[in-house]
Design brief:
Layout lengths: L4 E3 L3 H7 L5 E6 L9 E2 L2 E2 L2 H4 L15 H18 E8 L3 H13 L4 E13 L9 E10 L22 E3 L17 H11 L5 E4 L6 H8 L3 E5 L3 H16 L4
Parallel strand pairs: 1-10, 2-5, 2-9, 6-8, 9-10
Antiparallel strand pairs: 3-4, 5-7, 6-7
Helix pairs in contact: 1-3, 3-4, 5-6, 6-7
The structure holds S-adenosylmethionine.
The site of S-adenosylmethionine has 20 residues, from loops.
């Protein structure tokens, strides 16, 4: 596969073309199925929530929970096939909650750590009796030495220097585009600096506005990505081009 490229396609299409163990690291933040709702104790059908589900047009962000789970199971299985180490960032919302806990069970053999990303302040919950969500999770899957807590191959940090709660503030959505779920560059840099080496290949199957690629390039890693939306590919390419002159972001 061509490196330093973001493929404009469904990540499963890219993954099917990738050889076993062909990348060193995966960093990603998949869609959280934000628009799935519960009404009267039941998940809503797509029709009922359609009117509030207009943010993304290229993919369905209100999949029935079992479909969402099936998709993520398939993607995670492929990611474990192509990479030894995977950082899978996900937030517990209604549309992802059951799937996250199932994934933790199903892939427990490879689950090494759960890092808590503390965003510093919480977005107020949408109704009473619901906790404000201030954190997201980073599920870390390791195929090389999963039984141990040690990152034997790629961990470059010294004893006692890295905690499992990371306080990192959100970054504003960029390019004037309404992409509400961008990675802070600091988060990607923290993973790359502590869990990869110069020259490593980093894959992001849900590249969005290109943060993984921009930071990988700055830190002299190679990147590979998939993104289904042309709009976000254009933003990524623009950011990557600007970053050639100077890292001003
Ligand atoms: C949470 S965002 C990722 C944001 C990214 N980390 C950033 O910093 O901009 C998820 C992205 O996945 C893309 N997407 C959704 N389904 C996809 C699929 N099946 N394959 C590839 N990309 C997909 C969406 O268009 C969206 O940009």
């Amino acid at each position: 596969m061509k490196l330093n490229k973001i493929y404009h396609e469904d990540c499963l299409s890219t993954l099917k073309k990738m050889k076993d163990d062909s990348v060193d690291l995966v960093i990603t933040s998949p869609p959280y199925n934000m628009n799935l709702r519960i009404r009267n104790g039941e998940y809503c059908s797509r029709q009922i929530v359609k009117e509030i589900s207009t943010k993304y047009t290229e993919f369905d962000d209100n999949l029935p929970i079992d479909e969402y789970n099936k998709l993520h199971t398939e993607i995670l299985r492929e990611l474990i096939r192509v990479s030894e180490l995977i950082f899978y960032n996900i937030q517990i919302v209604t549309g992802s909650k059951r799937s996250i806990f199932k994934m933790i069970g199903e892939f427990s053999e490879y689950l090494k750590d759960i890092i808590v990303w503390d965003k510093g302040n919480a977005q107020p919950s949408i109704q009473k009796q619901v906790l404000n969500r201030r954190t997201e999770l980073i599920l870390v899957f390791d195929k090389d030495y999963p039984i141990s807590r040690q990152y034997r191959k790629r961990g470059s940090f010294e004893r006692g220097t890295l905690d499992d709660i990371w306080e990192i503030k959100r970054e504003r959505s960029r390019g004037g585009e309404n992409h509400g779920a961008v990675f802070p560059k600091e988060l990607v840099a923290k993973i790359l600096e502590n869990f990869s080496e110069e020259g490593d290949v980093v894959y992001d199957p849900f590249m969005g506005t290109g943060t993984t690629a921009v930071v990988a390039k700055r830190l002299k890693r190679k990147y590979l990505g998939s993104e289904i939306s042309k709009k976000y590919i254009d933003i990524s390419e623009d950011r990557l081009k600007k970053s050639e002159d100077l890292f001003t972001e």
